[in-house]
Amino acid sequence: MRKKKGGGVKIYLREEWQDVEFEKIIICIVNHKAKLEMMNQLLDLGIAKERIGFIEEYLKNYDVKITVEGKDTVNILANGITVRCTNEIEYMIAQEILAGEEYGFHTSGKYFVIDIGMNIGCTALYFASQKNVTSVYGFEPFKGVYDKAVSNISLNRKEIREKIQTYNVGLGKTDGIEKYIAHEGIYESAGIKKVQDGAVHSDCIIEQEMKQASSVLGGIMQAHEEHCLMKIDCEGAEYGILEDLINSGNIRKVDTIIMEWHVGKYIQLENLLNQAGYAYVLNKNSRDFGMCYAWREKR
Length: 299
What we know:
The structure is a single chain. Helices cover about 25% and strands about 30% of the residues. The protein is of the alpha/beta class. It folds into two domains: about 15-100, no CATH class; about 105-295, Vaccinia Virus protein VP39 (Rossmann fold), CATH 3.40.50.150. The strands form five sheets. A seven-stranded mixed β-sheet has the order 10-9-8-15-16-18-17, sandwiched between helices.
């Protein structure tokens, strides 16, 4: 639509688009699902993908470029990183992490990063792009999501790619088989959620092999003299992982933790962090998850 002479706004019908002169159409909707739906409608109208843009590209606090690759598919380019998104969940994740810097950690010290719950690779790529980060170890148990992470890593520069080692492995308190809620379709990228003891679910439940966190991470930690940053977003498995790292003593090698906690167990999380000797900021809300930032005041 555009302003008419004498006031008012001209609203164009679908069949009138071919007669409109424009450089670019900017999609200004906030909801990610609606954004992709509108993008698909514009593509169906014959609008060239190069002439479709998104409002985020014009916000002063964002350094992001979004390119349309085809139906339901966009590339997010931010802070020198490229991630391909094929649904609204991935679009939201990439925008939060790459443009919004949800895991923005800034320090001059040398760090290696352990990324537990790598998902489609956004956080691993974000940390690998930081000059003071030497290595990133990404763990993702769900094969479909893991494959997307590997694909996204391959889209990026060699100096970023070579910092990242990926593992199609789930971490937990012990070796064994655990039950997880699996999402299908577009919600696959939301990851899998650990089934809590005593909970009843009608969702799709899968059995997932898990490896004891300390047995997998101990060797990695021993190989590094740099500080360790651990990012955790593993849908309810975080409590068992932290407990195992505390019991094994490996937690002493972790200087900083940035995590999303789940299933409403923030009191248990507080107890674990206190036991491990961290100072921390723990965000609580009316839902059953939140962010937590923990650090050691002295090493």
